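User: Assemble these into one structure.

Assistant: Restating your components, then the assembled model:
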Amino acid sequence: DQQVKQNSPSLSVQEGRISILNCDYTNSMFDYFLWYKKYPAEGPTFLISISSIKDKNEDGRFTVFLNKSAKHLSLHIVPSQPGDSAVYFCAVNNDMRFGAGTRLTVKP
Amino acid sequence: NAGVTQTPKFQVLKTGQSMTLQCAQDMNHEYMSWYRQDPGMGLRLIHYSVGAGITDQGEVPNGYNVSRSTTEDFPLRLLSAAPSQTSVYFCASSYGESSYNEQFFGPGTRLTVL
């Protein structure tokens, strides 16, 4: 059973525009969510996190939004840069589950 | 700090062979874990450890063994390799309670079982 779902395997955006990556989860008891970024041939690296007591967390160009009633979180990257091209995983730390990932391509 | 290191980077095994994937961290992290990454499946937790001498199973533990004799090292053993274990394996560590801390990942080991 996939308790953490990223339904878009890939996303392509133009440099300078906004990238929006989405993640859905099934268990309303989950209370801490993270986004990781992964380049080819490297391990994932932590990007940003959010606790269920918040609905938004910002770090520079990256913002994560949490909608608890919809069991949905999203990662916004503004403005997108070519160096942001990578696979992005959402994760739930409560039981260490990861989504399948979304491959973001930012075109110059 | 080297962070989380994994050896080897690549490995090819024949069905039935055994091997150990090595993982070490120099950040004095209590929590360590092993994941496998397969296409379309994301990362799935194999085993984890909350400290030296303590290990537990994750989502996909069958065919793998672990032990944690020191804080620094967390090796993953494949007892009798099968083609279904062809995957990329990542080791990770985190400070303290894993639920509310980011994990630091190693560079991965790409394993092919023929």
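Chain B has a mean pLDDT of 94.
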